[in-house]
Amino acid sequence: MSLRKKFTGTGIAIVTPFHTDGKIDWDSFANLIEFWIKGKVEYLVALGTTGESATIHGAEKQEVFSFVQNKVAGRVPLVAGIGGGDTTEVLGWFKQFDLTGYDAILSVSPAYNKPNQEGIFQHYKALDAATPLPIIMYNVPGRTGQNVTGETTVRIANECKNIFATKEACGNFDQINYIIKNKPADFMVISGDDPITLPMIACGAEGLISVVANAYPEDYSNLVRLCLAGKFDEAKPIHYKYTDIIASMFAEGSPSGVKAYLSEMGLCQNTFRLPVWPVSEKHHQKIKELMKLN
Questions:
Q1: Please, which residues have CB within 8 angstroms of residue 224's CB and are 6 or more apart in sequence?
Q2: What is the CATH number of the domain that holds 65?
Q3: pLDDT tops 80 at residue 1
Q4: Residue 11: inside a domain, yes or no?
Q5: Residue 167 a catalytic site member
Q6: Per-residue confidence at 293, pLDDT binned at 50, 70, 90?
């Protein structure tokens, strides 16, 4: 199966469930994987930001990668989240982790140190030269503090042949349109923003890596399929059904919002590793009311 076929559609940036003592809840994790696959999403992304990757380290990361691979057992493609603000450290992780069963790596642009555009390009160029798997780059300036410009993304797409896609979460349609217009034909643009996925696909994006699909995999993957088929009139009711839900998932931080939903569904506990914290009781009550309307 080609990379384009594997990664067209809906991927989930999956949560990592925890017990109240902070240890990973492997039983809930297994049940969630079955729930997501039953929801007919196209692929799963382990240890992205939504998976609280910033507080999962070393051997524990390998445990998560291996657990997800073993439970999925080839039923859907898998992506490993491996990124960071130190290029040398990321290259070391490429060598360290056993990624058997994985199809690609999602690698976020460097956070906090705010490199200039040449630094961002050189970072991805170094990753491109050493990667064990094809890479989806990830631009999320709201988290990293630095935008990967459209020009830099297109440069990476042209010069870094192991980087085959971008998860684009800049929210700027001038930039999104620039990338889609000027990218190589074989380079994929994937939405990283649930609420604007419909218009992004209308502009030429080829799918979504989703947060909301953690809780609503079937509906949201159906929305994406309808959009990809050009059936926007059929997709719009699903899109508007979830606008308030999506807003509530991000209002007090992510994954705090989506885990509130999952806990109400009985799929995992509403627990995190600091500094991530549950949504306020007031907001949690709002989430309960939204779920009654859905």
A1: 9, 10, 197, 201, 207, 208
A2: 3.20.20.70
A3: no
A4: yes
A5: yes
A6: confident
